[in-house]
Write a structure and sequence with these properties.
By secondary structure, this protein is mostly beta strands. It has no helices and 15 strands.
Length: 258
């Protein structure tokens, strides 16, 4: 969203730039395969790459309202990326290579010539950039029974969270000014729930290999930037917040043999 016009209102103003990401939430596995009998080798490569941006820019204009002003850039994501390969026979070999890459940008920028102002008592100004993301990544290589067998699962998850509020202009509030990177516009923490699993099952008489591998790389860059020369004033409080919010992260490699 780009606001390039003057706004003068007798009520409140609520502006939202939003992304909703849904991938694989109705299926546990995005790829599945199986093979049985004799000597067989079954495998799969799966790559899932998603990058989304929710951006709200105020450029060189004056926005004056009697009531509150709220601006929010927000991404909500539910990602389930999985692969399951199974086989059985005289000689059975299974492998899964899974690469999941998610990048989320939520940005609010107030330009250097912009001015945000409320005129009635108890009227806040809130700028909030936040994400709420659930990610489940699971790779399974399964030899269900064989004289000789091998199983390999290689799972790589990469996640980038980038939430930023940048103010280069001026703000005047008749109540509070809140600049949040990692909270939503009503003050709730952003959330991240990640579960990454790499599993191998090798139920062979002679298990040649059962090798689960896992890499989980999470980068977070939540920030509030107030530029030189900006003027932020309020009748009551000025709140600045930049944090990752609430996080739950689970990584597991699981190996099963006779």
């Amino acid at each position: 969203i780009n606001i390039g016009a003057d706004i003068d209102g007798s009520g409140s103003l609520d502006v939202n730039a939003a992304n909703t990401i849904t991938f694989g939430n109705t299926e546990e596995y995005a790829v599945e395969g199986s093979g049985y009998g004799g000597i067989n080798a079954q495998g799969a490569d799966f790559t899932n790459s998603i990058e989304k941006t929710a951006s709200l820019n105020i450029t060189g204009k004056q926005i004056v309202t009697a009531g509150a002003q709220t601006y929010e850039a927000k991404t909500t994501g539910d990602i389930t990326a999985g692969g399951y390969i199974k086989a059985a026979g005289l000689g059975s070999f299974t492998w899964v290579t899974l690469d999941n890459d998610l990048t989320v940008h939520d940005n609010i920028t107030v330009g250097s010539d912009s001015f945000l102002k409320t005129t009635e008592a108890e009227s806040d100004i809130v700028l909030a950039a936040v994400d709420n993301v659930d990610v489940t990544v699971r790779g399974v290589a399964d030899v269900q029974g064989a004289a000789v067998g091998g199983a390999s699962s290689d799972v790589d998850n990469t996640l980038m969270r980038d939430n930023a509020v940048t103010v280069n202009g001026d703000i005047y509030s008749m109540n509070d000014v809140s600049l949040f990177a990692g909270k939503d516009k009503i003050g709730n923490d952003g959330t991240l729930n990640v579960s990454v699993e790499s599993e191998t099952y090798n139920y062979a008489g002679i298990p040649l290999a059962a090798s689960p591998k896992l890499s989980d790389d999470i980068t977070q860059n939540n920030r509030v930037v107030v530029g030189t020369g900006s003027d932020i004033s309020s009748v009551r409080n000025i709140d600045l917040y930049a944090d990752a919010g609430k996080e739950t992260i689970r990584d597991a490699t699981l190996l099963y043999t006779w």
